[in-house]
C-alpha cells in the first residue's frame, strides 16, 4: 500500500510542477520575433545559434582547449553577415559596445549579440569557489555573491553566465567537485535555486542581471571512476532522484538556459540525447529556454563514436535538442544545408532560433542593445567595497573547522607563529580554478592576512618547506627549524587549484608526497599544529596531518582568503561552516557519500567478516558530511516529537534542545535526517531533509524544531512516481550525517 500525495506534498518532495516561464515574451515582443524569423535567411538563422570565443575583448588564456580562432577581422565580418549571434568569455564595457555595434548597426537585420561568460564565483571580485561557499550551508549567501557577480558582469557588458554548475559529485576523484554544491541532493537543490535567483535577480532586463545557465545536463558528475569526461552509467532512478533535482530546482527558480554535458548517460552522449533534452526537459518539465552545447561538444560526437562526421554530429545534436553550438562553428557550417536538404525540418530550426531570440528579448536587448555597457558604471561597481566586504564574509563562512583538540583555536595574537608549507605566501592558489577574470594581485595570501592581524608582524616566520608536488632542497630542514622556534605552527598544505578543476581528476585524493613528508617532519618538532587545508574536493587525510591539533579546511576562498582565515584563527570571527562532502578515510572508498543505500549486511565491528566494510577500514568517514566545529561546545539532547504517528495529510514537529557548554557562542547548523525502515525501493541509510542555523549562546541552550509532513517522506516508487509507504521512520537531529539524537515515528 502507498499514500497518494497532495500537490503540496509533491512540491515539498521536489516532484513535478509547472515551470515558471520567465522567457515567454509579451504579445508585441513575440510578434517582433516572428517578424524577424520571417525575414531571416537560413544562414542568419544558423548564425543565431552560433556562439564563438570573443576576439574583441580581454579574455584570459588557458580556459579551454585551442579551437579555430580566425581573428578579429574575420569575426567582425561574420557578425556583419549575421553568421554569429553570440560571443563568450570576453569582458569590458567599451569593447562590448564595438562588438554590439557590428551586430546592431552593420548587420542586415540588426539583431543584437548575446554576450556570455563563465562567471562562476565572481567576475573581478572573487568569492569562494562554489564548493567552499556551499560549506556555509547558507543558500542566501550564495544568492548574494551571485548577485554581486552579476552586478559586476552586467556592467562589463555580459548578459549570460555559464553557471551555476549543479552537478552532484559523489566521487571525489573527479576534479570538478570544486565547482558545485557537493554530494547532497537537498543542498544541491537549494544552492542551485539560490544561485539562479542571485544571477537573474527580479528583473532580467536590469543591467545587473545575467541569464543563468545551470550545467552540465545531466549526470556529468557521475563520471565513471571520477574521470572527467568519462561516461555515466546509472539507473533512471539514480538520475531522477539524485542528479536531476538540482536542475529542476534551477528551472523552477527561473533559469532560462541550460548547458548539456560532455558525458554519455548510459551510452548516449548528453549532447545528442533526445530523452534528456526533449522528454525530460521539455515534455516533463515544460522548459522554454534554450539549450547550449558545452565547448565543441557537438564536434566531439565524432570522437565519441556516435556521429560519422561533423555534419552528422550537427544533425544528431540539433535534432536531439541542442539549440546553440559553442565554438565548434559546425551549426554555422552545416545547418543551412541540412535544412535545405530536408534532413532537419525548418520548424526545428525556427524553434531553436525563437528560443534564443526570446532570451535576447527577455534581457531587453532589442530595446537597449547597449544595456550595461557603460565604462563609468563598470569602474564604479567592479570590486566595489561592498563586494570585497561580502567576499571576506563569505570566505569566513566557508571555512570548516574539522578538529580543534584542547581548544587550541582561537589563537592569541601575540604568539610566535611559523607559517609553513607551499601555500603560506602563495598567491597562485587563492582565487580558484574558475576565477577566470580575477587577478592575482588582488589575492590576499595567508601570509598577508595573518601578518595584518597579529600584534607584532615580526613574530611570524614564513617558510615554504616543500613545493606543492615537488621537494624543495633544504626545505624540510628550514621548516623544522622554524617550527622549533615557534609557539604554534600553521601548516598551509593541500592541493593546488589545478589539482581540482576541469580535466584534473586524481587517482589519489591525498596530500602530495612532498607535502606529506614535510608534515611528518614538522610534527616531530612537537609544537601545537594548525593545518590550513587547501583543497577543491574532500581529501583522504592520512598520517600525521590527520593528527594535527587543529584542522581548518580553507578550500580556495577567493580574494579575501588571507584576511578571512586570520579573522577565524584569532577569533574576531568564529567558524560555522559544515562539510558539503564526506571526507573519507582512504581514496579507495570512492565513490563515497553519506546517503548510501542500506545493505543487507551492514558493517559492524571493524574486523567482523561478511559485512559491508573494507577489510582494512572501519565503516564510515574520517569526517562525515555535515561535520564542522564551532568555538563553542554544543551537545544535542534527545528529540521530542509532537506525535509518534503521522497521518496522511498531517504534520508532526520534532524538537531538540541544543546546549552550549563552551565559553563562546556557537553558530550551529542543526540537521534533520530521516531513514525509511521499509520501503518498496531500498532507501538511503540516512537522508538530509532539512537544516536550521541557530546561535547557541555560551553557557546557554536553544531549541530547534523541524516540521514534517508526508512530502518529506516521499521517494520515487517502483513506477518512478513520488510515493510514501506507511510504516516506521527513524529521525535524527544531528550535527552531521554520522551522529545525532534519534527518535522514530510511524506513517499511517
Ligand atoms: C566547460 C564549461 C564551460 C565552457 C566554456 C567547458 O570546458 O565544461 O563548464 O562553461 O568550457 O568555458
Automatic annotation (TrEMBL):
InterPro entries: Cellulose_Degrad_GH3, Fn3-like, GH, Glyco_hydro_3_C, Glyco_hydro_3_C_sf, Glyco_hydro_3_N, Glyco_hydro_3_N_sf, Ig-like_fold. It is an enzyme of class 3 (hydrolase). Its EC number is 3.2.1.21. The keyword rRNA-binding does not apply. Residues 668-737 form the Fibronectin type III-like domain. Keywords: Glycosidase, Hydrolase, Signal. It catalyses: Hydrolysis of terminal, non-reducing beta-D-glucosyl residues with release of beta-D-glucose. The keyword Hydrolase applies. GO terms for biological process: glucan catabolic process. One of its GO terms (molecular function) is beta-glucosidase activity. SMART domains: Fn3_like. Belongs to the glycosyl hydrolase 3 family. This is beta-glucosidase. It comes from Haematobacter genomosp. 1. The lineage of its organism: Bacteria, Pseudomonadati, Pseudomonadota, Alphaproteobacteria, Rhodobacterales.
Amino acid at each position: 500500500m502507498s499514500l497518494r500525495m497532495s500537490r503540496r506534498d509533491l512540491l515539498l518532495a521536489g516532484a513535478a510542477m509547472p515551470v515558471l516561464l520567465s522567457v515567454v515574451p509579451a504579445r508585441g515582443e513575440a510578434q517582433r520575433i516572428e517578424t524577424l524569423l520571417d525575414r531571416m535567411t537560413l544562414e542568419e538563422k544558423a548564425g543565431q545559434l552560433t556562439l564563438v570565443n570573443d576576439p574583441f575583448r580581454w579574455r584570459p588564456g588557458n580556459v579551454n582547449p585551442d579551437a579555430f580562432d580566425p581573428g578579429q577581422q574575420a569575426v567582425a565580418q561574420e557578425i556583419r553577415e549575421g553568421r554569429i549571434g553570440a560571443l563568450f568569455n570576453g569582458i569590458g564595457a567599451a569593447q562590448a559596445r564595438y562588438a554590439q555595434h557590428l551586430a546592431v548597426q552593420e548587420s542586415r537585420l540588426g539583431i543584437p549579440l548575446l554576450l556570455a561568460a563563465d562567471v562562476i564565483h565572481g567576475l573581478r571580485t572573487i568569492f569562494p569557489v562554489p564548493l567552499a561557499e556551499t560549506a556555509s550551508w547558507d543558500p542566501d549567501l550564495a544568492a548574494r555573491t551571485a548577485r554581486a557577480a552579476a552586478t559586476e558582469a552586467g556592467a562589463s557588458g555580459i548578459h549570460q553566465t555559464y553557471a551555476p554548475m549543479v552537478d552532484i559529485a559523489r566521487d571525489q576523484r573527479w576534479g570538478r567537485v570544486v565547482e558545485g554544491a557537493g554530494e547532497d541532493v537537498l543542498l544541491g537543490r537549494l544552492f542551485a535555486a539560490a544561485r539562479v535567483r542571485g544571477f537573474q535577480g527580479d528583473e532580467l532586463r536590469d543591467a545587473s542581471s545575467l541569464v543563468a545557465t545551470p550545467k552540465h545536463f545531466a549526470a556529468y558528475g557521475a563520471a565513471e571512476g571520477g574521470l572527467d569526461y568519462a561516461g555515466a552509467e546509472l539507473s533512471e532512478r539514480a538520475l531522477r532522484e539524485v542528479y536531476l533535482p538540482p536542475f529542476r530546482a534551477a528551472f523552477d527558480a527561473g533559469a532560462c538556459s541550460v548547458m548539456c554535458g560532455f558525458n554519455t548517460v548510459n551510452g548516449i552522449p548528453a549532447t545528442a540525447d533526445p530523452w534528456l533534452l526533449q522528454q525530460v526537459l521539455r515534455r516533463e518539465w515544460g522548459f522554454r529556454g534554450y539549450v547550449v552545447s558545452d565547448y565543441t561538444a557537438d564536434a566531439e560526437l565524432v570522437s565519441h563514436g556516435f556521429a560519422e562526421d561533423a555534419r552528422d554530429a550537427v544533425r544528431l545534436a540539433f535534432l536531439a535538442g541542442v539549440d546553440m553550438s559553442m565554438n565548434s562553428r559546425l551549426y554555422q557550417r552545416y545547418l543551412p544545408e541540412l535544412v535545405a536538404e530536408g534532413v532537419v525540418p525548418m520548424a526545428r530550426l525556427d524553434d531553436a532560433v525563437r528560443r534564443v531570440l526570446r532570451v535576447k528579448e527577455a534581457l531587453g536587448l532589442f530595446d537597449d542593445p547597449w544595456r550595461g555597457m557603460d565604462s563609468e558604471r563598470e569602474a564604479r561597481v567592479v570590486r566595489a567595497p561592498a563586494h570585497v566586504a561580502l567576499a571576506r564574509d563569505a570566505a569566513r563562512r566557508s571555512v570548516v573547522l574539522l578538529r580543534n583538540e584542547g581548544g587550541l583555536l582561537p589563537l592569541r595574537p601575540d604568539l610566535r607563529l611559523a607559517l609553513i608549507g607551499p601555500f603560506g605566501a602563495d598567491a597562485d592558489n587563492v582565487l580558484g580554478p574558475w576565477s577566470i577574470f580575477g587577478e592575482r594581485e588582488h589575492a590576499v595570501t595567508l601570509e598577508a592576512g595573518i601578518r595584518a592581524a597579529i600584534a607584532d608582524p615580526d613574530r611570524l616566520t614564513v617558510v615554504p618547506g616543500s613545493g606543492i608536488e615537488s621537494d624543495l632542497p633544504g626545505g624540510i630542514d628550514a621548516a623544522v627549524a622554524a617550527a622549533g622556534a615557534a609557539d604554534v605552527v600553521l601548516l598551509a598544505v593541500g592541493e593546488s587549484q589545478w589539482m581540482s578543476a576541469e580535466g584534473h581528476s586524481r587517482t589519489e585524493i591525498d596530500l602530495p608526497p612532498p607535502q606529506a613528508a614535510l608534515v611528518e617532519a614538522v610534527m616531530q618538532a612537537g609544537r601545537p599544529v594548525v593545518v590550513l587545508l587547501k583543497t577543491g574536493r574532500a581529501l583522504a587525510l592520512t598520517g600525521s596531518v590527520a593528527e594535527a591539533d587543529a584542522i581548518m579546511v580553507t578550500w580556495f576562498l577567493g580574494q579575501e582568503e588571507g584576511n578571512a582565515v586570520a579573522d577565524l584563527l584569532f577569533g574576531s570571527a568564529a567558524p560555522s561552516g559544515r562539510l558539503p562532502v564526506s571526507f573519507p578515510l582512504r581514496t579507495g572508498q570512492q565513490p563515497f557519500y553519506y546517503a548510501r543505500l542500506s545493505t543487507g549486511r551492514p558493517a559492524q565491528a571493524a574486523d567482523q567478516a561478511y559485512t559491508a566494510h573494507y577489510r582494512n577500514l572501519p565503516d564510515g568517514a574520517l569526517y562525515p558530511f555535515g561535520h564542522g566545529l564551532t568555538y563553542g561546545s554544543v551537545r544535542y539532547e534527545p528529540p521530542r516529537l509532537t506525535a509518534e504517528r503521522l497521518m496522511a495529510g498531517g504534520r508532526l514537529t520534532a524538537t531538540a534542545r541544543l546546549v552550549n557548554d563552551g565559553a563562546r557562542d556557537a553558530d550551529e547548523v542543526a540537521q534533520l535526517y530521516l531513514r525509511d525502515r521499509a520501503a518498496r525501493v531500498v532507501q538511503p541509510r540516512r537522508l538530509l531533509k532539512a537544516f536550521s542555523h541557530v546561535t547557541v549562546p555560551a553557557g546557554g541552550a536553544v531549541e530547534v524544531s523541524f516540521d514534517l509532513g508526508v512530502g518529506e517522506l516521499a521517494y520515487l516508487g517502483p513506477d518512478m512516481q513520488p510515493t510514501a509507504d506507511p510504516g516506521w521512520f527513524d529521525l535524527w537531529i544531528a550535527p552531521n550525517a554520522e551522529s545525532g539524537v534519534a527518535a522514530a515515528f510511524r506513517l499511517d
